[in-house]
Amino acid sequence: MFDITVQTNIVITAALIAFVAIFRAALGAILQRKLRKLTGYGLVANAITSVLIVGVVIYLLYVWRFIQPIVESLVAFSAIAAVILLAVKDIWIENLLAGASMIGDKNIMVGTAVEIKGKTGKITEMTLTITKIKTKDGHTVIIPNRLFREEAFTIKKSAVKP
Fold first, then answer.
1. Of 32, 33, 49, 88, which sits most exposed with the smallest number of CB within 10 A?
2. Longest C-alpha distance within the chain, in Å?
3. What is the arrangement of strands in the sheet containing 130-135, beginning at the earlier edge strand?
4. CB-side neighbour CA atoms (13 Å) of 46
5. Residue 71 Cα distances to 1, 68, 75, angstroms
6. How far apart are CA 114 and CA 143, in angstroms?
7. How many angstroms from the chain centroid is the CA of residue 86?
8. Domain boundaries, the chain
9. Which CATH class is domain 102-157?
10. Other CB atoms closer than 10 Å to residue 93's CB: what's the count?
11. pLDDT band at 79 (very low <50, low <70, confident <90, very high)
């Protein structure tokens, strides 16, 4: 591959910016003339121009040789994110998925009396990761949602559906 000089890069960048500006103006005029009866023709022009701009930006990053550092950074951040996700998988993600399924479950809702792991009480709060149960003696027990999917529990009394 041949080596592009800085001056050539500047010319390419200016030409592409001018092309996008002219393309946007022409597209807006054409769409306004053809689609003036339809509302939102400006949104169509903006969407088409946005796709073009993303392509131009990616090409300019390539021309100015910024693509490789960006890709290397994304790979490094992806590796770090994968390690973090594996570390919190058992703690947070399982509870999150169990909580999402519990919220959709019609048998378990705020106000339902339950017994789980020897604790009996009424559900006072349900989030995506935990469920709070208020016992008869006034204590609040926080149960990770995954336990409602892993352990057997008893529904003592269903809440009245609103």
1. 33
2. 79
3. 140-144, 130-135, 119-126, 113-116, 153-157
4. 4
5. 20, 5, 6
6. 11
7. 18
8. 6-65, 102-157
9. mainly beta
10. 14
11. very high
